[in-house]
Amino acid sequence: MKLNTISGRFAALTIIFVILAEIFILLPALSNYRLDYLESRLERAQIASLALLATDDALASDLESELLQNAGVFNVVLRRDDIRQLVLSSPIPGPVIETYDLRETRPWQSITDAMGTLAESKDQVIRVIGAPVNQAGQLIEITMQTAPLRSGMIDFGLRILVTSAAFSILTAILLNLAAQRLILVPIRRVISNLSAYAEAPDDPRHIITPDARLVELRNAEIALEAMQKTVTSSLKQKERLAQLGQAVAKISHDLRNILTTAQIFADRLEDSADPKVRRAAPKLLNSIARAVTLCETTLAFGKAEEPAPSLSRFNLAQLAGEVIEAETLAAPEPGLVEYLTDIPASLMIRADRDQLYRVLSNLTRNARQALEGTGQPGLIEIGAGESDSEWWIRIGDDGPGLPDKAREYLFQPFTSSVRKGGTGLGMAIAADLVRSHGGRLELLRSDAEGSEFMIRIPREVNAPLLSRPETAR
Q1: Is 331 strand, coil or helix?
Q2: How is 253-272 classified by DSSP, letter by letter?
Q3: Strand partners, 350
Q4: Which residue has the higher pLDDT, 349 or 200?
Q5: In the predicted model, is pLDDT for residue 62 greater than 80?
Q6: Distances in Å between the alpha carbon of 151 and those of 25, 37, 75, 287, 388?
Q7: Edge-first strand listing for the sheet containing 125-130
Q8: Which among 430, 427, 422, 371 is positioned nearest to 397, based on CA atoms?
Q9: Which of 361, 375, 378 shows the shortest CA–CA distance to 450?
Q10: Whole-model pTM?
Q11: Closest Cα to residue 410, out of 422, 398, 394, 399?
Q12: Would the keyword Nucleotide-binding be found if you checked this record's keyword annotation (predicted)?
C-alpha cells in the first residue's frame, strides 16, 4: 500500500490517530492507577495501625514488622485530636526524596507525578499523606518504596496497551473497510468510467449514470455526466459537420469546373450582335466569377490546416509597404483611399513573413473595400511597435464600422462578411494565422468613426496558443 494513494494515506492517518488515542487513554489510566495504589497503601497502613490501637499492650517486633510488610510501608503516622503519633515504624533504607499529599492532588499534577515515577528507574523512598478512612483521624502519613509502585504501573500500562491496541487495530480495519466500500469503490468506478469514456467518447453507452450514495460523490458524478453528454453531443455535431464539409467540398469542386466552363462560354457573349446581350454579359461574368471564387475559397478552407509558421526576422515596415502597394494597384478607383504608416523604420519582427503578409493583406483589403463601398474618400492607417513581451500591429480606418451581427461572429468562417459577394473567410483565416504564432487578433473598436484591429505576437517562440480570437470590449 503506497502513501500516495487514498488507501495508503487513510491507513497512515488511522495509525497516527490511533497512537494519539492510545496516549490520551494511557496517561490518565496510569495516573489513576498510581493514585489507587497509594490510597490502597494508606488504607492498609490504617488497618495495621488500628490493630495496634485496639490493644493496650505493645506488639511484638516481629508482629509489627509483619503488619508493616503486609501494608507495604516502612512506618505509619496518625494525627488524631491534633496529636501526631508514630503508630508503626521500622528502619527506613534511605532518605525521603519526595512528599505527596493526596488531599491536594490535581489531575494534571497527578499525570506529571505518574510520568516522573515511570521515568525514575531507581528505588526511592517517598512520603504519602492522605485522609483516613471513615474519619478515623485527621490525617495518615506513610513512607514507602517506589519500586513496587513503578513495577505495578508498568504491568498495568502494558495490559492497557495490549487491550486498547487490539481494539484500535480492529477499529482501524473496520474504518479502512468502510472507507474502501463507501469512498474508494465509487471513486474507482468514476475512474473506470473515465477510462472507458476516453477510449470512445462518441459512444453514449459510456456516459456515467450517477448512483453514488454520498452527496459529494453524487454531485461529482452528476457534473461528470453533464460534461460527458456535452462532449459527446459536440463530437457528433463535429462529425456531422465534417461529413457535410466533405460533401460541400465535393460539390464545390464539381461546381467550380461547371462554372469555369460556363465562364468560357459567357466570354463570347460580349461579341454578340444583340446589344441587350452585350450589356448583360459583364454582369453574368461577374456573377460567375464570384461563384468560382466562392468555390475556390471553400475548397481552400476545407483542406488541411495551415503549415506551422516558418519563423524569421524581417523588417516590418517593408512588409507593410508591400501590402499597401498591392492594395493600391488593386483599387478600382485609385486615390479614393489613402494609406498612412506609423512603423519605425528599424523595427524587426520574428514571424512567418508570408503568413503575416496574408494577415495584413486581408485586414487592409477589408478596410479598403469598406471605404470604397461608401463612395467617399477614406484613410487606412497601419501602426506597429514592441514591448518586452510582444510585438503589436494596429490596422485602423475611418470607415462606417461593422454591424453588430458581423462583430458577434467576426472570426467565424462563412458568417462575418458584410460585403456583397464576400465569403466570410478572410477574418477567420487571418485569426488562425495569428493564433498559429501564439498570438491573438483583436477588434479594439468599431463604430461610426471607423474600425481598429490589433495583432499581438509574443516574443517567446513557445508561447501558449489561444483557443480562439478575442474581441476587445
Answers
A1: coil
A2: HHHHHHHHHHHHHHHGGGG-
A3: 313
A4: 349
A5: no
A6: 19, 11, 21, 111, 77
A7: 83-88, 75-80, 139-145, 125-130, 96-101
A8: 371
A9: 378
A10: 0.43
A11: 422
A12: yes
Q: Which of 85, 98, 12, 103 is nearest to 49 (CA)?
A: 85
Where do the structural domains in the chain lie, given as residue ranges? 6-169, 215-302, 312-458
Question: 337 - beta bridge partners?
Answer: 378
CATH architecture of structural domain 312-458: 2-Layer Sandwich (3.30)
Q: Which residue has the cell 487490539?
A: 166
Give dist(CA 308, CA 310) in Å, integer. Answer: 6
At 46, the pLDDT band (50, 70, 90 cuts) reads confident
Residue 116, pLDDT above cutoff 80: yes
3-state secondary structure of 402: coil
Q: How many Å apart are CA 154 and CA 432, to the nearest integer?
A: 79
Return the SS3 of 397.
strand
**Residue carrying the nine cell digits 455535431:** 237
Mean pLDDT of 425-434: 83
- 45 Cβ contact partners less than 8 Å away, ≥ 6 residues apart: 71, 73, 76, 88, 140, 142
- Whether the CB-CB separation of 414 and 435 falls below 8 Å is answered with no
Residue type, 44: R
